[in-house]
Amino acid sequence: MTEDDRPHNGLFTTGGHAATAPPRPYANGTTINGSGGGSTKRCKAGEDDAEEDPVDKEERSLRDVCKDIHDRVQRFLRIEPASDADGDVIRRTQRQTRISQGVIQRALVEYGFEHLSFSYNGGKDCLVLLLLYLSVLWTHFAEEKNRLHQGQDPKPSNTHTDTHTHPEAANGVDSSSDFPSTIASIYAEPPDPFPAPPVVSFRDAFAQYLDQHSPRIKAIFVGTRRTDPHGHKLTFFDLTDGAWPRFMRVHPVLEWRLDEIWCFLRSRELGGQWMPLEYCSMYDEGYTSLGGTGDTLRNPRLKVLEPGGGVSWRPAYQMVDDERERDGRE
């Protein structure tokens, strides 16, 4: 496992208990306290004070959030694509959605909800993964409940990478007691002031996270795609190697292309009443790949020279070339 191939630092969520899900899907800068309340802020790189977003203060249970996201994803999967270029993108994205759902379901079956963790950094790829994870949680617990009621093994031996919602699970979980109420959240934030060298390495910090916070974690969802550095060697399930702490890395969105990421995130079906779905605002300002504050620049291919000599930037969703996605990274 190399430095570029590591799980994204940021928010790690684990099965079990602690912070409830946010009231609506947010990306970069979201903060949630241990009881599920707190403030939701959208931050840009270099800003000290983030402006608080006017969000609905009503708290929603994890069950309600998963049901909502599941319904949105199902609406997207029911789109009848046209026989044009736009229809082709939708068709490909629907296929990738089903494949990713299958990978997530396989991980839930093989490892169990309480043994899984989720690496989230607020970027577009992780946001797609988060939405798919929440949608699969709804059907996973519904199907597990049905198997238990029928006297079947809650962990069937046959798993595959392309799942569909079973008719008996379509209505989901009919009682809040059948669904986990919370997901534990651990935010990895740099200390202030930042310590002088030597600092703890990412690998050592990761080992500390696993040892102290989540000793039961066996697998971690990571939003890496094939076009990311070292992504060409990955599969859906890869064990860490070398001196890294041992766990299974799960890459459900590995095969997604850039235009499929944006097709999913900007679809009307996913946006619901908040159209379009909210994601990190930097993507609308010419940034196509987000990293550290010192190596993230606007993508020069989205630069627009105005007639009066000014400069503007096209949004990231107009970049469809996977090979040029990281042109704004130094």
Question: Which range does the strand content fall in?
Answer: 5-15%
> What do the pLDDT scores average to?
76
Weakly predicted, low-confidence segments? 2-10, 16-55, 156-172
User: What is the ordering of alpha helices and beta strands?
Assistant: EEEHHEHEHEEEHHEE
CATH class identity of the largest domain? Alpha Beta
Which CATH architecture of the largest domain would you pick? 3-Layer(aba) Sandwich
**What does the largest sheet look like?**
6 strands, mixed
How many extended strands? Answer: 10
In the CATH scheme, what's the topology name of the largest domain? Answer: Rossmann fold
Question: Strand order, biggest sheet?
Answer: 5-1-4-6-8-7
What is the CA–CA distance across the termini? Answer: 22 Å
What integer value in Å does the Rg equal?
20 Å
Determine the number of helices (DSSP H or I, runs of at least 4 residues): 6
Shape: globular
Total domains: 2
Helix fraction by DSSP (H/I, runs of at least 4)? 25-40%
Structural class: alpha+beta
